[in-house]
Queue: 2 jobs
Job 1
Amino acid sequence: MMSRKKRRLWIVIACGIGLSTAVALMLFAFRSSLSFFMSPEQVAARHPPPGRVFRLGGIVQANTVVMGTRNGAPYTTFRITDGRASIPVVYTGVLPGLFRQGQGVVTIGAMAKGDSEFMASTVLAKHGADYMPRDVEMALRKAGKWNPKFGPPPNAGAWDDKSPAQIEASNNG
Amino acid sequence: MSVSRRMLFGLPLLVVGAGGVGFYELLRRMRTGSYNPQAFDNPLVGHDVPDFTLPGVNGRKGFDKPVLAAQKRPVLVNFFASWCVPCAGEAPYLDRLAKAGVDIWGIAYQDKPEAIALYLAKYGNPYARLATDPSGRTAINWGVYGVPESFLIAPGGKVVWHIAAPLVPEIIDDQLRPAMQRLT
Amino acid sequence: MIPTLGNFALALALAIAVAQSVIGIAGPMLRDRLILRTAPALAISQFVMLGLSFLALVWAGVVSDFTVRNVAEYSSSTTPLLYRITGTWGNHDGSILLWCLILSLCGATVGAFGNSIPTSLRSRVLGVLGLISAGFMAFVIAVSNPFARIWPPPLHGAGVNPILQDPGLAVHPPILYTGYVGFSIAFAFAVAALIEGRVDAAWGRWVRPWALVSWLFLTCGICFGSLWSYYTLGWGGYWFWDPVENVALLPWLTGTALIHSAIVVEKREALKTWSVLLAIATFSLSLCGTFLVRSGLLNSVHAFSASPAQGLFILVLLALTIGGSLLLFAFRAPALAASGVFAPVSREGALILNNIFLCIIAAVVFTGTMYPPFLDLLFNRQISVGAPFYDQTVLPLTAPLILAMAVGPMMSWKRAVLLPALTKLWFGAVVALIVFGAFILRGHFVAALGLAGAVWVMIGALIDLAERVRLFRVPLRQSFARLFTIPRAAIGASLGHLGFGIAVLGIAGMSLQVHTIRVLNPGQSIDLGGYNWKLISIAPAKGANYAAREATIEVTRNGHFVEMMHPETRFFTNQKVKTVAAAISTNGVRNLFATFAGDNDSGGGEFRFNIHPLAPEIWLGGLIMALGGAISLTDRRFRVGAPVRNRLRRPSGSATV
């Protein structure tokens, strides 16, 4: 049986080997799989190479969403904008329920060959624990976010007379 | 008991302490707005305002980018609308800011002249200058996706701060004031 | 009225907790027997008060008392009764109150059932628990009080988040929190031992059942959380390496290391420093997790409504708890008696290796989770770390663990020879190699490795059990009888390892999944994975507070009927939110998974179909692990004062426990 000191040395060596393996794996993983986030303006400026996976986030530009089917599978094209540039995105699959025009999304994917479109493999729309969907009623109660999809804003002149129920009725009608 | 062995026992405490300092700093930055993991960063922050020209409303003159960039003092650009209830909520605080000497320029988003006039008559007019963006296209160029939103523009036209929420006192004290102080 | 009483009960509980902490920690120094007996009574009354407070909040939810702001914001009169009750903990303030309740339950349990622990140690343990309780209750009352009132009350509440309106909400948070918070007991034992300046074999024996209970609940909690996201989120994913999931995994990893090293403390009086540090670390990670999730520091799809002010309070609590305990550790731990002697190749050595690897994996997960905010802090760069990072780091690091898991139980204490231990496992090695070869030939490299590893662990666990009952070496009837006389902890350990192997089997199987997305009209069908999926109809349906569109899918295989599946999309009228309810069909070894995304214009709809091989095994494995832990707890050594009957004749030279 070896002395305590020698055994301690073995333990330290084992820890060292384990740690260096872990660090090496991490460095390798960081280099190859960190998905960097780019906005449309950065994409337009930097032209990431086709096939390189990254996250593209921005606002879904209103009136650019086109849905169709390709080989029986549903696909959607739309443009993501950050106000300075807009990138066309193609997504094959089922869009999340929170996806709406004029709202923020994050997509993961890569540029197609020819640098023309962003082929998205995932589309994410976020939500928080207190569900605050961006529709007119909640917008008027909380933070004033208005979704263009729900039609033109109500006339402010008649505003103060309406009760919450009347506002809701006029928005749904 | 060797010194190095004693130090080894203190190592966890040191690591945790460093982490704690880091967390505290992150929290502090969240309060001032310079770190926001949930946000959709407005891409304009740190850049110049985009080119734009907006007409005035109800007899007033609008403004455009050159005029804004030529200002010698910081300008708070506030996107609002008459049909937006929280805008009415932040109106008294904007009034207070204007009276304290802050230059506030307003942009009415997707609104009608009569409605704007009614709104300003009712809630007060804190705006040194007022323009209107009926189509909302300029707002898109600014990265606005709802109202109210406010931007702090430094002299020369660079956007240094942005908030996508009503300017309530906590935000004014925690974020806007430090941002303005950084400019002076 | 009742919410006010609830608030009062909460304040009273805080006062009791403060008293408990003072009396608990200072008591042993005064050597007054009466004072020493007060701490358990205080712990139990603290729990009673918190129980009443919690019940008051639940009552407010049940009767839809909208003067309580928490109820107005997170419940409504149209919410079904089950979710009016369980929605109490479906939001930040209510869930922190649940946290406090469970913390006080831990103290009450130690007070009521810890009679075999020496009085002074128990008193200190209760004192530490009281201190932590007091901190959290102060947080609730000061910054996050669920009993805050609003006037006038709104007519309707905002309603429970639709995604949370699921029986899972009733089950997942309480179980998970019991796991998280339960490790406070092991933590308190560690701190109390450091205060006393003594860690011995008895300490190991007392800590282990409390750590096992917490570990068991945490395993179930994580398992159930994964199952819940699997059937709720509609993508068929079960683990996303989301920061909130990672912060639940971290204490599980160190907790597993703790229950293993507590064994060594108990049997060999070794690894004391390590065990104390692990006990502190596990609860510290639980606390860190609470902090990270509720402060809003981490960007996650599970985001709790957060505020930096609350985050700051919790950070201070963390600094005091973790900093205080580690300071104590730095000063007192070096004085702990030096460990017993053993060779590197021995069961102790294997357990040390196990600890090292579990802790390294925990460190990697922690780094991945904290990398984005700290990179932003130090270098002002925004990045995000996702599943690919963890797949490339954690999965390779589990390989040595899997290999060692089968070998460790074969080794004897103090000094073992490796070759005989490995030879006993020949059967497992052979089957694993066959499985590996079979899947490599089909081109599935990752699945081959995973399945082979899983089989190795599963057979190793069974061989361990077989060795103990001397299967094939004594008459079968005697082996069977031995099953009831060997220590239950041994059965528990085998089951635990078996469960882990089964879970790995499921995870590896999921890597072989197939899926497709299609637009189908009624009458159309597609083929996937040997099954034929046919859309029969789409019709409206209705739930308690939602309207739905329900699709009917007929699944057949080779012409034989398999299942009718009914995926739905649901529209919740109160929040105007649309969710997807997946249809899952299981036969124990594979899952069929169908989601319906919405109608198209021609009477049909968009569908996503998946086949998940071996998916049920993921959660079955987790449950079996927890079952192993539960069986270990029934070991007679953990029961109060039961004499150990020496029924077995001791054979020599073999691995005994």
Job 2
Amino acid sequence: MHEVALRAEGLAKQFGGLRAVSDVSLDVRVGEIHAVIGPNGAGKTTLINLLSGDLRASSGSIAIGDRPVTRLSQERRGLAGMGRSYQKTTIFPQFTVFENVRLSAQARCAKPLRMFTHVRRDEAVNERARSALQTVGLHDRARVTASLLSHGEQRQLEIAMVLATDPRIVLLDEPLAGMGTAEARTIVQLIATLKAGRAVLLVEHDMDAVFTLADRLTVMADGCVIASGLPDEVRAHPAVRTAYLGNNGL
Amino acid sequence: MDLLTFGVQLLNGVQYGLVLFLVASGLTLVFGILGVINLAHGAFYMLGAYLAYWIAKYTGSFWIALVGGVGISFLAGMLLENIFVRRLYGRDHLAQVLLSFGLILVIDEIRQIAFGKDVHSVAPPAFLQGSIQLTDVLSYPVYRLAICVFCLIVAAAIFYVIRQTRIGMIVRAGAENRQMTRALGIPFDKVNRYVFAVGIALAALGGIVIAPISTVFPGMGDHMLILSFVVVVLGGIGSVAGAAVGALMIGLTDTFGKVFFPTFSSFSIYLLMALVLLWRPNGILGQREV
Amino acid sequence: MAGSAAAAKDDSVLPKPSLLVQGLTVLVVAVAIALPFLAPSYYVQFATKVLLIGLAAMALNLVVGFGGLVSMCHAAFYGLAGYVLALTTPKYDPASLWLTLPLAVGTAALAALAIGALSLRTRGIYFIMVTLAFGEMLYFLFHDTTIGGGSDGAYIYSKPSVAIGSFVPLNLERANSFYFVVLGVVGLSILLLRALVQSPFGHALAAARDNERRARSLGFPVYRLRLTAFTISGALAGVAGYFAAAQYGFVAPQMLGWHLSAMLLVIVVLGGMRGVTGPLVGAVALLGFEEVLKSVTEYWKLVEGLVIIVLVFALPGGLRQLASMVLGPRAEAPAAEPALPAAGEASRA
């Protein structure tokens, strides 16, 4: 079995009187896509925020490989090999597509903050950016300002940015949100290729995509994990059926 | 320093702090609820003082000056909100800073045209003149005590309105989540106008109230502006309770500073602010988590 | 769906200017160099003043336009350097530029480092208020104490000397020589700023402006980036202040005051925050406008205030917006405004 790249144990998050996440444990292995699903308000976004460091956990622990990262900031977790895409597209709108990806690649290079050389001089960084763009299929839009891209293309860009940092762990927060069928198909194919050599955690609502992509599945409701395991097992789980009663089905 | 002198200075510090609170509460309300930074806030404080001088001069009555000054400022606030401030909601802070700076230049020139560069004084109302004799040599002006009482009443009124009334609840809801409040059908635009006008009126009230014990001079607006900013930053933006805490701290620091190290009294206020920010970057009662 | 060739570009941070602008730039530089031979001394001195304010504004723009932070204390760095010159110049003799300039700029940089370190822990509106307050702190330091003559200020009777030993290349007392030195300093500063802005550092800084969360999650040390930019910016403002003090022969607390800081912001917005030299254009425009106004009416401040108000509502993109309105729109990315967090971050009343 592939090694565990990301492990969370007993994660909880409290907002005043509200328990958004209670006692959630899961792990993600290299070479797999572990999907997290659940109805609205289940705590999925909070979970991903806890994992990436956008939010600090009230209790519990998170580790990347052997290394505990519960107390580390987003920046540090990023440097430790974690990459994440956001539900609301977070690219750099005033930069071009290429520059966006180059920034990601730059963040990981040996000297990310050099002050007196022109950005175009670092060929290694440029090359990483170009190949990330190739992978997601945006290389012919390289010189377009990011804010002018279509919604689907911006999602592709986000994934390219995550890829350019060469992460071991990829957290994807509803990458298909608001997409038409054709666009969604492209992204689904893209996500499928991501797991080679990486551990992917996917939070999604789109059930078709989830069942196409997931190697393992965790279902959340009201902040807790109600089922976890192989997709077919989870599908048949009675608690899961109850949680989804009334929604478009499994 | 004996106990009595200490007590007198303490009273002075509290009184100054209370006036600061009056002015700063207006600023923090406008920022906390409208999300607008109003650099011209100090200019309205100054305008209040000048209006007090002018109205008192022509009517002979401090009370008319008080009511008139507040009334005029309130109306001016409504007008300004309608014409300018309304267009700034959602605009970035730089635009707001520049607008208020432009307003300051305009207001200052208007004051210069109307009242000149002279320094003026205003007499307190007759029954508040004079002092209370504390010892053979020490007496405390009645008017200063009156200021304390008055400011406390206004402060209590503000807290009451915000905590206990419906309009206060709307105002607080708006501070937390503007869009949601609007979606609930509450006529937020009207509320905004009133809040801004009240904020301005509070600044003017501060100026009117302080006029009898301090001189009415052109630079007073600037000075008060920076101080109220420090108070608001210290206390936490949007928090009226924070403004109270901050104002008291500043009032006391300034007063005792002037007694013990006069050349550094202003400097020490900023030092205080720097230290507080090191400890709490969002102010004492400001939001904790970013 | 947008994808026309007009929208494609290579460099977003410092886009390559059009041929027209490039031509104009060459023309302006030529005129600037030839100015002392073309115009009477009054205009040369005016140009010196404009260049220095422009330099301070360009320094500020590193933080405002490229960093996305509205700093209200930059005049403090400008004035501080001026005061250092005043305090190190002997009563009737000139001070050595080689000693006093580094000292002045170093002091300004240190102040920027200290103020920045504290202020950058705050965000958005807090940052503006905190920088404003710190600027005032320095103002009061010089206004209330007897350092540098208190509220009256201090005189600098001799301009700094450029002599090294007995070799005297220039005499700064001569307006033309002073002008050329300032022109050279400003030119060098522009080159420095351009290099900074187009470097990995500059791109990371601008990225943090565009989307702080994303920059952080990529691993960029946003606080450090901004502090570095703030310090460099303060140092450059100090360079401008040093020469300004030398030019006027006088320093006063107003040189540190927030009115000047606000004016610098107006100039930055007026000139356009997109490029490095925008603020210099803004300085020419505003100071030129002021000159004209002053000769027309006594109440020029009123007019200036009204113009600023109009500027905010009608021309948020500054003169560049005006230029593109006049010359015809180009398919460009929208004008940059510092992407500060929305005002909704304020806490409850």
